[in-house]
Every structure is written in C-alpha cells, then in structure tokens.
Design a protein that fits this description.
Elements (H helix, E strand, L loop, with lengths): L10 H9 L6 E2 L12 E2 L13 H4 L4 H17 L11 E6 L5 H14 L8 H5 L3 H10 L5 E4 L5 H14 L5 E6 L6 H9 L22
Parallel strand pairs: 3-4, 3-5
Antiparallel strand pairs: 1-2
GO molecular function: 3-oxoacyl-[acyl-carrier-protein] synthase activity
GO cellular component, one term: cytosol
Protein name: 3-oxoacyl-ACP synthase
Length: 217
C-alpha cells in the first residue's frame, strides 16, 4: 500500500497518526477561504514530491497526479516486486479520480483571464485531464497493460479497486496498480462544493467531519 493524505505521507506515518488519536482536518492555509464560509478541510501539509520522484518530473504534474504517483511508488516498494518479477504486458494501472487536475485548471483559467489565451501553458491539458494519473504511473513503471481512470465522483477509487480485482481474478492481468487520487482543496474546489452545501461550516476541526451526527451539515 501507499498513501498521501492529511494524516501522513506514508502508510506508516498515517497509522501512527491514527493510533495517536489525531485528526487530519485543520484550518485551511493554502488560500483565504473566509468568503466561502468554509474554514477547515483535509489539507495535506508539507508534501514534498521529490522525496519519491525527480523534481523535473513532479514539476510537470498536477498535484493530484503527484499524490497518485507518490503513493504508487510506495505501494510498489512495499510489494517487494522487481521488474524481473513482472511481465510488463500483464501489468495494468487502474486509478480513480472524481475531478482530476483542478489545481491546474484554476491556475490556467486565472492566467488566461489576466494575460490572454496565448499565455495558457501547453501542458494545461496533459496536466488537467483525469486519466493522466494512470498514464503517468504506467510510464513510470513501464506497465504496458490497460491504463485508465474511473470517474464516478466519490466512489471513483472504490470502483477502480474493484475493476483491478476483477481483472486479476479473470486472469487478464498479473499485477494491477490501483487506488485513487484527488487534490481539490483550492479556491474553486472549496467554492464549488460549498455551493452544493456539501461541506461543513464548522470552525472546530474536531466537529467538522461527523457524517453520522444528528446535526451534521
């Protein structure tokens, strides 16, 4: 397994944080969210992609793809597999992402509105599209089997893992790197979900994510 989340940047760190009884919800620091009425979120702090990948690669990836690749590298290392153990033609990558490169979309639309369409980055589309996380992971590990992203909102990763399991059970693949990646704690992400009344307005992080509470938001 591999993970990057508000509780930690690895499986071991995440488990240790959970065992300590700490929560991953905290005040938003990436931008001023006061106008949205939302002040806390599951924000990932101190993430350094270069810990597991070359900086020149990470700079060409949206944050959600960085999260996905970073986690996949940890998972692959934890599996104990080597290139000699895997037939690249029978190695697939199936990932889930509900919204894709939202950070890149916001940055490039802002740049276009301020400086004109000719200033939009040629990497805008490759960085923003949801399937880039699977494509990047496939390229990184040299996987030549099926590579695609499942987009089913909040169920994306669960569906992707199910697809991966069925592919192995059916004998269509020997190895599948699977999971989900999302990076939507930014201005447009918070504003959009706030407009749906899908976010908690609680200012206290300890009371912000209580889905089964009678007074849940």
């Amino acid at each position: 397994m591999g993970t990057v989340n508000p509780l930690g940047h690895s499986v071991a760190e995440t488990v240790a944080t959970m065992d300590a009884g700490k929560i991953g919800i905290r005040p938003i620091t990436k931008f001023d969210a006061e106008k949205t009425g939302i002040t806390v979120a599951g924000e990932v702090e101190g993430f350094k992609p270069e810990v597991r990948m070359e900086k020149r690669l990470s700079k060409r990836l949206d944050l959600f793809t960085q999260y996905g690749l970073y986690s996949a590298i940890e998972a692959y290392e934890q599996s104990g597999l080597t290139k000699d153990d895997v037939d690249s033609e029978r190695m697939a990558v199936i990932f889930g992402s509900g919204i894709g490169g939202l950070t890149t979309i916001q940055e490039q639309v802002t740049k276009m509105n301020a400086k004109g369409p000719d200033r939009v980055s040629p990497l805008f589309v490759p960085e923003a599209i949801s399937n880039m996380v699977a494509g990047t992971i496939s390229q990184y590990f040299g996987a030549h089997g099926p590579s695609y992203v499942v987009v089913t909102a909040c169920a994306s990763a669960t569906n992707a893992i199910g697809e991966a399991a069925m592919r192995i059970q059916s004998g269509k693949a020997d190895v599948v790197i699977t999971g989900g990646a999302e990076a939507s704690v930014n201005e447009i992400g918070i504003a959009g979900f706030a407009a749906l009344s899908a976010l908690s307005k609680a200012a206290d992080p300890a009371k912000a994510s209580l889905p089964f509470a009678a007074d849940r938001s």
